[in-house]
Design brief:
This protein is an alpha/beta fold. About 45% of the residues lie in helices and about 15% in strands. The protein has an eight-stranded mixed sheet with strand order 3-2-1-4-5-6-7-8, sandwiched between helices. Helix 1 links the parallel strand 1 and strand 2. Helix 1 crosses helix 10 and helix 5 runs parallel beside helix 7. It is globular. About 5% of the residues have low confidence. Bound molecules: NADP nicotinamide-adenine-dinucleotide phosphate (NAP). NADP nicotinamide-adenine-dinucleotide phosphate binds next to helix 1, strand 2, helix 5 and helix 8.
Length: about 260
């Protein structure tokens, strides 16, 4: 793998203002890509621009807005598209959710992946382009304190697979990959859930215990070992984007890197 593969390419990262997205935007920029960062917080995007210089272009916007997806794909035609933006659901047991809070990650995470994926296929992006979506280990394990989050993240994995199939059928040559990160306290979203599960389980365990068929399908580790950080996520995404040899449809993402999922 060589970062030279990314020199001069254009990457678009949603949710670039903080957390994994900021780490991913930073790593791609340092690998030589021109990075377009999308998030709603203009100030945090401007801070990142000050840090990364001219290789980073802030695009303050709601990534779940279909017009935004169309405009940005038309304007930038990225060869690396990282669909990372995600809402933080209320950390509550299911019966303390309303339908609106339960479905929040469908409205933001799934909706933005839907719009951007659709635009990537319709454009279409150039052959050899890579679209990376952020699912979650919760898609395999469940996440009983976050309403519809786990289902939304499973839908993102399916949607990414469907898009790969459509690219194949139309001969577009696009690579679609979903990543399932391990829960980590190293981002705002993750820290909130590590704390919520620790409180619920008396501090004994930071993630829901794996059980049932979904758990058997998952070899995702619980929150042991070193945590996944935004820097490590950035390195993993950069490696994947630069190396067409990553051909699996989905990977677990932990501090140890990427591990293919069957
Ligand atoms: N951290 C974990 O443990 C973990 C585990 C598995 C999967 N994930 C997934 O990884 C992704 C990143 O998570 P994170 O932990 O880095 O979260 P985070 O620190 O809360 O960051 C979320 C990012 O998404 C952006 N965002 C949220 N809603 C948006 C919208 N409507 N339009 C544009 N940007 C929006 C936020 O920026 P603004 O608020 O400025 O818009 C922010 O940049 C998410 O999809 C998450 O579900 C995280």
């Amino acid at each position: 793998m060589s970062d030279r593969e990314l020199a001069g390419t254009t990457a678009l990262v949603t949710g670039a203002s903080r957390g994994f997205g900021r780490g991913i935007a930073t790593a791609l920029s340092r690998a030589g890509a021109q990075v377009v960062g999308v998030a709603r917080d203009r100030g945090q995007l401007e801070d990142l621009r000050a840090e990364l210089g001219g290789s980073f272009t802030p695009e303050p916007a709601d990534a779940a807005d279909p017009v935004v997806a169309g405009q940005l794909i038309d304007a930038y035609r990225p060869t690396v598209l990282v669909l990372n933006a995600g809402a933080t659901p209320l950390p509550r047991p299911v019966h303390h959710h309303t339908w609106q809070t339960f479905s929040r990650n469908w409205e933001v995470d799934v909706q933005h992946v839907f719009h951007f994926t659709r635009e990537a296929l319709l454009a279409p992006l150039a052959p050899g382009s890579t679209v990376i979506t952020l699912s979650s280990g919760a898609a395999l394990r469940g996440s009983p304190l976050s309403g519809g989050y786990a289902g939304a993240k499973a839908a993102i994995r399916w949607l990414t697979g469907y898009a790969a199939e459509e690219s194949e059928r139309a001969g577009l040559g696009l690579r679609f990959v979903s990543l399932l990160p391990q829960l980590t306290p190293a981002t705002d979203l993750g820290a909130r859930y590590v704390a919520a599960y620790a409180a619920r389980q008396g501090g004994a365990q930071a993630v829901p215990a794996a059980s049932g068929p979904a758990a058997q399908a998952s070899s995702a580790p619980a929150a042991s070992g070193p945590p996944l950080t935004p820097d490590l996520a950035g390195q993993a995404v950069t490696d994947l984007a630069a190396d067409p040899g990553y051909r699996e449809p989905a990977y677990m993402l932990t501090a140890a890197g990427l591990r293919p999922l069957a």
